[in-house]
Amino acid sequence: MQSAICYREAGRSERAVSLFREHLTTRVFAPRDRAFFTAQYSGALVAAGEPDEAATAAQEALSLAAGARFGQALAELHRTAADLAPYAGRPAVREFRRRLGELAAV
Predict the structure, then answer these.
(1) Does residue 30 register a pLDDT over 80?
(2) Nearest-5° Cα angle at 57, 51 to 63
């Protein structure tokens, strides 16, 4: 997972997406880790030009992170929300950003 994060930060989002997909489906993670890695995955999807998939992954991460207030995951989700701003008109993106905003308002 660290390699996927590094690829994302290095601007190699397609490789990051591939690694996230591979490892998120084959490994068992603690809820906090799954929330964080899924949030990272959503950001990599935005950078790879897949905003709808990014919003879907972000919704999954938000569901994991919201109740327990997993700070790192929530910070990544805010970063993803900002990256998704150009796609705000898309239904999945709009729904994710609405849910994240509701959580922030609480």
Answers:
(1) yes
(2) 135
**Domain at 2-105: CATH architecture:** Alpha Horseshoe (1.25)
Buried b (16+ CB within 10 A) or exposed e, 19-58: bbeeebeeeeeeeebbbbbbbbbbbbbbbbebbebbbbbb
* Positions of E strands within the chain: none
Domain boundaries, given as residue ranges, for the chain? 2-105
Local confidence band at 51 (pLDDT 50, 70, 90 cut-offs): very high
| 35 within 8 A of 65, measured Cβ to Cβ | yes
Q: Which amino acid is at 89?
A: G
Question: What is the C-alpha separation between 22 and 82, in angstroms, rounded?
Answer: 26
∠ CA 5-58-31, nearest 5°, is 75
* Mean pLDDT calculated for residue range 35-47: 97
Predicted TM-score (pTM) above 0.90: yes
